[in-house]
Design goal:
Blueprint: H1 6-15, E1 19-23, H2 27-35, E2 40-43, H3 47-50, H4 62-73, E3 80-84, H5 93-105, E4 110-114, H6 120-128, E5 133-138, H7 144-147, H8 157-173, E6 177-181, H9 185-194, E7 199-202, E8 210-213, H10 215-218, H11 240-252
Parallel strand pairs: 1-2, 1-8, 2-3, 3-4, 4-5, 5-6, 6-7, 7-8
Helix pairs in contact: 5-6, 6-8, 8-9
The structure holds 3-methyl-2-oxobutanoic acid (KIV) and sodium ion (NA).
Residues 23, 42, 44-46, 84, 179, 181, 202, 212, 214 line the site of 3-methyl-2-oxobutanoic acid.
Function: Catalyzes the reversible reaction in which hydroxymethyl group from 5,10-methylenetetrahydrofolate is transferred onto alpha-ketoisovalerate to form ketopantoate.
Pathway: Cofactor biosynthesis; (R)-pantothenate biosynthesis; (R)-pantoate from 3-methyl-2-oxobutanoate: step 1/2
Subcellular location: Cytoplasm
Length: 263
């Protein structure tokens, strides 16, 4: 497979073709994910929960993400490698720039940052310096304590308008990709159609340009309450490589997510 780049994702968007994304944290799984044809790998700060056992992503440090990015970078194959800026990396533009530099040095090809329209300056400066940015909107797990829990965002018209406006502002500032987490499928569709950049969804309905899940959830290694948008692809196969392939094929064919996975 040819290496996936930002241009590949843009071409998918313009062709109306979907793409699949999955989190990855180490070399062995990264290799298996790449072999399944999954276009984007994310070293997510979800590692705080699935690897470190915390109940939120807030304890995750820049060093943690850099370590796992280095683990994945050598095994990512043709997939595009994105890494998360951790909690408070967005405190100032200078901090965002420095932290993004560390992630890129560790092997990231794009950074993802959570926040709203107020991040426009930071995103503009990162983009100017050659760092492609994905802006993560909707349910932003780093603000879980402010949000009062992991809840669907944008069910009411006012918040939905705000998420759309934030997305437009951040794309104008330079964001190359938008990620929407836990928003109604109707809002996922509106934002995807309104923007000229690829939109990746998790719990954002079937109409976003790309889909992403946490690797552990795809493999059924989910403890506690399983979110509605998750699907255990191991239930339909008996090996891990097969589960990744099935996930990729179901996203490409728009069989996943189904209505039962959407809000
Ligand atoms: O950290 C993560 O894994 C994420 C995805 C769930 C989008 O941000
Ligand atoms: Na994350």
């Amino acid at each position: 497979m040819k290496s996936v780049t930002l241009s590949t994702l843009q071409a998918y968007k313009h062709a109306g073709e979907t793409f699949s994304c999955l989190t990855a944290y180490d070399a062995s799984f990264a290799r298996t994910i790449a072999e399944a044809g999954i276009e984007v790998m994310l070293v997510g700060d979800s590692l705080g929960m699935v690897l470190q056992g915390h109940t939120s992503t807030l304890p995750v440090t820049l060093d943690d993400i850099c370590y796992h990015t280095r683990c994945v970078a050598g095994a990512k194959g043709a997939s595009l490698l994105m890494a998360d800026l951790p909690f408070m990396s967005n405190a100032t533009t200078e901090r965002m720039l420095n932290d993004a530099a560390e992630l890129m040095r560790a092997g990231a090809e794009m950074v993802k940052v959570e926040g709203e329209a107020w991040m426009a300056d930071g995103i503009r400066e990162m983009t100017r310096r050659g760092v492609p940015v994905c802006a993560h909107l909707g349910l932003t797990p780093q603000t879980v304590y402010q949000l009062g829990g992991y809840k669907v965002q944008g069910r009411d018209a006012e918040r939905a308008e705000q998420i759309l406006a934030d997305a437009r502002t951040l794309v104008d500032a330079g964001a190359s990709v938008i990620l929407l987490e836990c928003v109604p499928a109707s809002l996922g569709k509106i934002i995807t159609e309104a923007l000229d950049v690829p939109v990746i969804g998790i719990g954002a309905g079937p109409d976003t340009d790309g889909q992403i899940l946490v690797m552990h959830d795809v493999l059924g290694v989910t403890h506690g309450r399983t979110p509605r948008f998750v699907k255990n692809f191991m239930a339909e196969t008996d090996d891990i490589a097969g589960a990744f392939r099935r996930y990729h094929e179901d996203v490409k064919a728009r069989r996943f997510p189904a209505e039962e996975h959407s809000f």
